[in-house]
Amino acid sequence: MNGPIRKVAAALGVLLAAMFVNLNFVQVVKGNFYRNHTGNQRVLLTEYSSARGQIVVQGTAVAKSVATKDELKYLRVYPSGPIYAPVTGFNSFIYGTSGLEDAEDKVLSGSDPRQFGRQLADLFTGRNLQGGSIELTLNKAAQEAAYTAMKAPDGTMRRGAVVAIDPATGAILAAVSTPSYDPNKLSSHDAASIQDYWNALLPNNDPTGALVNRAFNQTYAPGSVFKVIVSAAALKAGLKKDQQVPAPNGFWPFHDHTGACPNDPTSSCVENFGGETCDNGTTATLAFAFAKSCNTAFAALAVDKLGGQKIADEATLFGFDADQLNIPVAVTGSTVGTAKDLSDKGSLAHTSFGQQDVRMTPLQAAMISAAVANGGTLMKPYLVRQELGPNLSILSATAPVQLSQVLDLDLDQQLQQMMIGVVTSPEGTGGAANITDLGTGVTVGGKTGTADTGVFKNGKQTPPHAWFSGFALQNGNPKIAVAVIIENGGVSGNETTGGLAAAPVAKAVMEAYLRSLGGH
Amino acid sequence: MTAAIASLRVPTRRNAELVLLGFAVVIVVAAEAAVEATRDGHISSRLVTYAAVPLLIGLVTHLVIRRVAPYADPLLLPIAVLLNGLGLVMIHRLDLGLKQQADQYGQQFAGAAAPTQVVWTAMGVALFVALIVLIRDHRVLQRYAYTLALAGLVLLLLPALLPARFSEVNGARIWIRVAGFSLQPGEFAKILLCVFGAAYLVTKRDVLSLAGRRFAGIDLPRGRDLGPLLAAWLICIGVLVRGHDLGTSLMFFGLFVVLLYVATERVSWVIIGGVLFAAGAYLAYQIFGTVQTRVGVWLHVFSPLHNDDGYQLRQSLFGLGTGGIFGTGLGGGHPELVPLPATDFIISSFGEEVGLFGLVGILMLYALFISRGLAAGLAVRDSFGKLLATGLAFLVALQLFVVVAGVTRLLPETGLTTPFLSYGGSSLLANYALLAILLRVSDAARRPTNVAPNQPTAEPAAVSA
Questions:
Q1: B383 touching A, CB under 8 A?
Q2: CB contacts, 8 Å: A8 with chain B
Q3: How far apart are the first and last CA of chain A?
Q4: Beta bridge partners of A360
Q5: Which of the residues A119, A389, B80, B256 could staple to A393 if both were Cys, CB 3.0 to 4.6 A apart?
Q6: Given this model, what pLDDT does residue B464 score?
Q7: SS3 category, A324
Q8: Residue-wise DSSP of B454-465
Q9: Could you report the predicted ipTM of this complex, rounded to two decimals?
Q10: What string of H, E and C letters represents the secondary structure of B364-384?
């Protein structure tokens, strides 16, 4: 009988092999299909089974998890939803995570390896496993003032962004992108309503682009704000702020003319906004050309005096075309354009006042003013002050890091004075940013920009974007740098309109921040 | 003198068994610790209970075996204890999950199953001890073959003949429920019928292996010898018709065909059995809605047509897929989402939490158990013992295969328990009975011929005497 028993054993071996192969098929080959199948709630249940940590701004949670009675044990709520959405991002069981919810997911979910000791201790002490918290650098007063200031008179949100930085450290004080979205509606536990809301936010259905984080991830032509960088390059090249520079009515990159430009849009000739005259129509001091934002003077400076490379080098010091910035949210890169933009005289002329292919994020715009305000030292921007364990032990605290020295201190003083002139001098375009209510100690400087969009609708270019990038000093110490962009907020050919639209927003943010610091 | 020396040459391997039992206890305790750590976030004093169960059943059974079956196979018992212990851990873990689920939905929790399983385990061990002490020689069973067969048949057919209110649970009439106490008699019937089959075939094997007509190169048995096989087939069909119990009828028929094949050494029996099985399966599919549903679910588990009746299998696959290669860790998954996670689908519960690696490990334990059973069949000297051991090992193997194939969608689901692992008194009692008989046969297989069955291990004192 032993023969048949051995054959039975062999047959059973075949059955074992069949089970083994099939298990591999089910658990490995088809594993992901089953794991991610819509009928499978397991991944979801696990994700929502523990309390996610808080995102805290000055002691107040702007994102927190509250216990619920339904199957997903915790609900993510954002008490000031849209105001902080560009920073917090969302945490949706359908659409995943974004913003800091994504970048700090490991700490928030408690899976960060630095929390291992705590995780182990939890095992034995019986506390529930939970995520750590992150404490932001944001300032409530600045953030809320920025959001409120972006409201149009009719109560709707203007399209644009505001970013504020502490120039001395790089700590981001405000980051607003408007119109915003409500992350609560993406983190709810009702799949149908989440999908409806998401679909409404998709670019095809939402022309305002509420999901786009304009503050960190949208780039725009800087317009005249870029003149800060050209001026820095000029000062480095030996020019003084009170030195006379050519400021013709028309700048002809390829000719030896100085006359006004023809009425021909295809001409490479550069003219001032609205064909205005800069000072006497032939020369002006660098500071005057800067304050009045004369295009011809900067085009001449760039093409005839500095050349593209010096401008590009200076821009790199300010953060353009530099390494990817993670704050820890990934920031879209800013650029001065291609090599050809810098070598071709016609392109370089337009690059000098922030058109052509120059693009920057609002954060980059704030970094420009921050560097100038901080004695030429550019600090690395950051959003997270501290990462905390569930027991509030500090996992990490961000130490300020210097990114570059954009200008030596003495040259930077001149540039600071030039920027202050934009706000305080009679020819300046940024007077609307001036703060007068807080006493004599406060000095405001900045630069306006009116950036052509290059977008045409019905044969006409859409209204230009209105920029303001500036800073506030208190008793000579840098306190805050702010950048504001209002999409299509200007009037074509009128530099003052950019200042009129964007500068008051910057003023509101700086004033709110200075007041929050006390002493006023 | 010579007898005593000869007996010394065969090691009893009882110490190996003891060490392996120690491993089993450690693994069970580690598994329970993992469950508690993940579920509650800390390790509680309950761990002592879960350490005590495998420790006690291991020690008791081990000491009894040392006394009455010293040459028994040293692997069978530790594997059974380990599987029983792991099953208990999983049942406890499912209790926690099901209770939480009930709380969330504001429902009444049906009650913890783990304590009941502990009671069943104790009863299983008691049955084991009783059987291995009472049956000092497996050949004794041969004498009661027909009595046991009658008892087996009654047990097998009783639920099908009883009114549904005494026997039907979840559409299958395989229970006897009296005064809040429920038993699945089919679990015992298969062992009794295995004993009978082995005894019957030992006496009839010469007749049954006589060649009849030759067809397509195979010697067919004589027509009149087909009687026993046809009888078995009809009984299975009867169980299927009345009880809607696919699993038990498949087990019983498979067992009989294999015993017939081993006894007669004729492949023709397997072929005839296969044909009869195919015919029975086809008939069952044509006639019974439940069979059609099971097959439909198997083929189109994600079809909207099987939205409701395919739910269980889908959840099983989701659990297995989510577990993936390494699993979510014990206590880290959601096996409670699969209906009947502790009985029919305990394999998916393990697959989700210990992953492919863990599940293959469990399959290997079974493979080892089955191969040790077959090895006992190969080594034992009497034909009845060979058939009995092979039949019992095959029962475990076929039941495991049918369950695993069912929950992993290799074959249509049939609704059987996993030996030693699943929750359920009948299953556990029956499998401990099976273990006792298998150990008894293995003891006979390895015992030196000159040591009497009742004589315990030769002591050194016996040598000098």
A1: yes
A2: 258, 261-262, 374, 390, 394
A3: 103
A4: A220
A5: A389
A6: 39
A7: coil
A8: T--PPPHHHHH-
A9: 0.91
A10: HHHHHHHHHHHHHHHHCCCHH
Instruction: Decide if A429 is inside a domain.
Output: yes
Instruction: State the Cα–Cα distance between residues B26 and B47, nearest whole angstrom.
Output: 11
Residue B381 CA to its chain's centroid (Å): 25
Flag whether pLDDT at B10 surpasses 90.
Answer: no
Pairing status of strand A74-77 against strand A60-67? antiparallel
Contact pairs from chain A to chain B, CB under 8 Å: 140
With CA atoms as reference, the chain B residue closest to A43 would be: B322
With vertex at residue A21, the alpha carbon angle to CA A18 and CA A24, rounded to the nearest 5 degrees, is: 145
Contact B318 A31 (CB under 8 A): no
What Cα–Cα distance (Å) separates residue B459 from each residue in A283, B4, B8, B440, B455? 120, 9, 9, 21, 11
Q: Which residues of chain A have pLDDT under 70?
A: 44, 46-49, 70-72, 115-129, 492-493, 495-496, 519-520
Please give, rounded to a whole number of angstroms, the shortest distance from the CA of A88 to a CA of chain B. Answer: 29
B270 touches chain A (CB under 8 A): no
Inter-chain CB proximity A30 and B321 less than 8 Å: yes
Residue B153 C-alpha, separation from nearest chain A C-alpha, in angstroms: 26
Tokens encoding A414: 């001149």
Q: Is the pLDDT of residue B458 over 50?
A: no
Which residue in A19, A70, A125 is closest to B404 by CB distance? Answer: A19
Say if B374 is an interface residue toward chain A (CB within 8 Å): yes
Q: What is the pLDDT of residue A121?
A: 61
- What gap in Å lies between CA A228 and CA A468, rounded to an integer? 12
Q: Let me know: does A444 contact A106? Beta carbons within 8 Å.
A: no
pLDDT in the model for residue B459: 43
Whether residue B127 is predicted with pLDDT greater than 90 in this model: the reply is yes
User: Which chain B residue has its CA at the smallest distance from A30's CA?
Assistant: B321
**Structure confidence at residue A333 (pLDDT):** 93
A338 belongs to a structural domain? yes
As a whole number of Å, the end-to-end CA separation of chain B is 7
Cβ pair B363:A2 closer than 8 A: no
Structure tokens at B211: 């060649």
Please, what is the Cα angle at A271 between A267 and A276, to 5 degrees?
A: 145
Q: Is residue A154 part of a domain?
A: no
Whether B81 has a pLDDT exceeding 90, the answer reads yes
CB-nearest partner of A27 from B321, B332, B334: B321
pTM: 0.64
Which residues 6+ apart lie within 8 Å of A63 measured at CB?
A54, A55, A76, A77, A78, A84, A88, A91, A101, A183
Which pLDDT band holds residue B214 (cuts at 50, 70, 90)?
low
The answer for B 87-146 residues in CB contact with A (under 8 A) is 104
Q: What is the pLDDT of residue A219?
A: 94
- Could A12 and B409 be called an inter-chain contact, meaning their C-beta atoms sit closer than 8 Å? no
For tokens 């005064």, name the residue: B179
Domain CATH for A367: 3.40.710.10
Q: Which domain holds residue A445?
A: 223-384+400-517
Report the residue count for chain A. 520
Tell me if A35 and B263 make a contact (CB, 8 A cut-off).
no
Q: Give the total residue count for chain B.
A: 465
**Whether residue B8 has pLDDT greater than 70:** no
Q: Which of residues 329-348 of B touch A (CB under 8 A)?
A: 332-334, 337
Q: Report the pLDDT value the prediction gives residue A281, as an integer from 0 to 100.
A: 79
Q: CB B37 to CB A123 under 8 A?
A: yes
Count structural domains, chain A. Answer: 1
Contact A71 B328 (CB under 8 A): no
Mean pLDDT of chain B: 85
Q: How far apart are CA B256 and CA B90, in angstroms?
A: 33
Spatial contact of A466 and A449, defined as CB atoms under 8 Å apart? yes
Nearest C-alpha of chain A: how many angstroms from B459? 33
Contacts of B43 in chain A (CB under 8 A): 123-124
CA atoms lying within 13 Å on the CB side of residue A382: 20
Is A469 contained in some domain?
A: yes
